[in-house]
Design a protein that fits this description.
Elements: E1 2-6, H1 8-17, E2 28-33, E3 36-42, H2 43-46, H3 51-70, E4 73-75, E5 81-84, E6 87-91, H4 92-95, H5 100-103, H6 107-119
Parallel strand pairs: 1-3
Antiparallel strand pairs: 2-3, 4-5, 5-6
Helix pairs in contact: 3-6
């Protein structure tokens, strides 16, 4: 896994490009690139949080890394289909239109927030 700190300007650009309600509140994200999975962290924004919250954020994103590395979570880059535990779950296009409430119900997010909660 590569960890890429980004400036507030880069973080704002990401939020502008990704118009979903969920992306507008993102301080860190795990993204698949041509070099593998990259954890992008908006340092300016993350550093505004208390240290314990920052630790929780890292645990949350590293949980996603573990989900991808273990194959529990997978995204077909050609079709945009998201698979959870080997089963089709949602299409990436549908994900980009999700509300915060819907996002919080995705099983990989439930798992990541549970892991995050254990360190807070």
């Amino acid at each position: 896994i590569s960890i890429l700190p980004v400036s507030k300007e880069m973080s704002d650009l990401f939020k502008e490009i990704n118009e979903s309600e969920v992306a507008k509140s993102v301080d860190a994200a795990l993204v698949e690139t041509c070099i593998g999975y990259v954890l992008i962290i908006a340092i300016d924004e993350v550093m505004q949080h208390e240290p314990s919250l920052r630790k929780g954020l890292y645990v949350h994103e590293l949980t996603h890394y573990d989900q991808f590395a273990s194959g529990r979570l997978r995204i077909d880059s050609k079709t945009g289909q998201v698979y959870w535990l080997g089963e089709p779950y949602i299409n990436h296009a549908e994900m980009s239109k999700a509300t915060i409430e819907e996002y919080l119900q995705w099983p990989w997010e439930i798992e990541a927030y549970e892991a995050q909660g254990r360190v807070l």
